[in-house]
Amino acid sequence: MSVTPSADHSEDSHAVSAVLDDLAVLAVRRLSTREISLTAATTLSYLDRNGPARLSALAAEQGVTQPSMTQLVQRLEREGLVSRGVDAQDGRAVLVGVTDAGRALLAERRRRRRERLDEMLGTLPPGELRELTRVAGEFLPLLRRLLQSAPQE
Amino acid sequence: MSVTPSADHSEDSHAVSAVLDDLAVLAVRRLSTREISLTAATTLSYLDRNGPARLSALAAEQGVTQPSMTQLVQRLEREGLVSRGVDAQDGRAVLVGVTDAGRALLAERRRRRRERLDEMLGTLPPGELRELTRVAGEFLPLLRRLLQSAPQE
DNA sequence: GGAAGTTGTATAGGCTTCCTATGTAAATTC
DNA sequence: GAATTTACATAGGAAGCCTATACAACTTCC
User: Fold this and answer.
1) Which residue among B5, B25, B131 sits closest to A142, beta carbon to beta carbon?
2) How confident is the model at residue B147 (pLDDT cuts 50, 70, 90)?
3) Is A64 within 7 A of strand C by CB distance?
4) Within 7 A of a protein CB, which nucleotides of strand C?
């Protein structure tokens, strides 16, 4: 470890760790759509935000191997969610881009997840809901910054 | 939708939803231990916190089907991480409990995740780190309640 | 300008973890 | 006590990941 943790730092990261575990369960199981995997969704989302990209670039971005990304892109192409073209500059490379159908699926997925989250939030007593949303408003920007600074294993 | 969301409620849940994908990537890929799956880890953790439980109760808790939980428990038993006993009250039921080896693995997993998290947290400015951990402490209980009250699809 | 190395993608084969459909034994109901 | 329900197990299959390896296009270097 390159950092020198203090005692309370350790305790703090315990709480953060617990939150991350629970949030992972929430994101992966309670909010997962059956029609598309997490990697597929985040890959589509990346292509939507950043434009066409190479297979190997996508694999690195998603933290999977290149063969896995090849397979994923093949599945996505079969389902009409992405298109593949050749790179004019480099005959070896494949440029993957999201299609309109892919964008539509992304939008539908977002809608459904938001709907389910709303349902879950609706079961909380109003006071707790208010507190949760307030705390979430503080927490999420910080988490985002943490994620962006995260090392790539 | 069965609940009637207010305007700000919708915005908040949108913010939550927006960060969940990134978060899931972090939790699932950057903090995942290769030796045990997310479901296995959260199941062990549940058993550790709540004592022995039935197969079907575990399946419902984890949001997987009963056959999947049967398989998971069989794998965990083969690896000596859980033990299976019969319910004295109900001859059909199986009571699953975590073993000392299971607890040891949980502790090791926690240690390793904490180590990685510490590295990530170490990249934050001290002020943000303090705020992040403080907010995490507030957020955790609320999140737990939300997950408990969550509808099972 | 061609041999050798590098890079980008595809294929093969295997593992884990989930699913649905269905079987079986214990408990409950009538 | 027969029929139903409940709790778990088994069978078979698919998704999605891996490592190892093959192949084709680009680059280097003499």
Assistant:
1) B131
2) confident
3) no
4) 7-13, 16-22, 25-28
- How far is it, in rounded angstroms, from Cα B31 to Cα A24? 10
What are the backbone dihedrals phi and psi of residue B141, each rounded to the nearest 5 degrees, phi first?
Answer: -60, -40
pLDDT digits (tens, 9 = 90+) for A6-26: 444 555 667 777 777 777 777
> Integer distance in angstroms from CA B147 to C1' D30?
67
Q: How far is the CA of B87 from the C1' of D3 (A)?
A: 25
Render pLDDT for B105-134 as a digit per residue (tens, 0 to 9).
Answer: 998 888 888 887 788 788 888 888 888 888
Higher pLDDT, A104 or B31: A104
Rounded Cα distance between A8 and B149, Å, is: 31
Q: Which residues of chain A does B106 touch, with a Cβ-Cβ cutoff of 8 Å?
A: none
Alpha carbon distance A28, B150 (integer Å)? 14
pLDDT of residue B19: 62
Write down the pLDDT at residue A148.
65
Q: Which two tokens stand for residue B76?
A: 């965990």
Q: Which of B4, B11, B20 to mutate to test the interface with A (most CBs of A within 10 A)?
A: B20
- Does the pTM surpass 0.90? The reply is no
Q: What is the DSSP string of B59-88?
A: HHHHT--HHHHHHHHHHHHHTTSEEEEE-S
pLDDT the model gives residue B150: 53
> Is the CB of B86 inside 8 Å of chain A's CB atoms?
no
Give the model's confidence band at B83: pLDDT under 50 very low, under 70 low, under 90 confident, else very high.
Answer: very high
Six-digit token string for B99? 């073993």
CA distance B42 to chain A (A): 8
Distance CA A38, CA A28 (A): 8
Return d(Cα B61, Cα B47) in angstroms, integer: 11
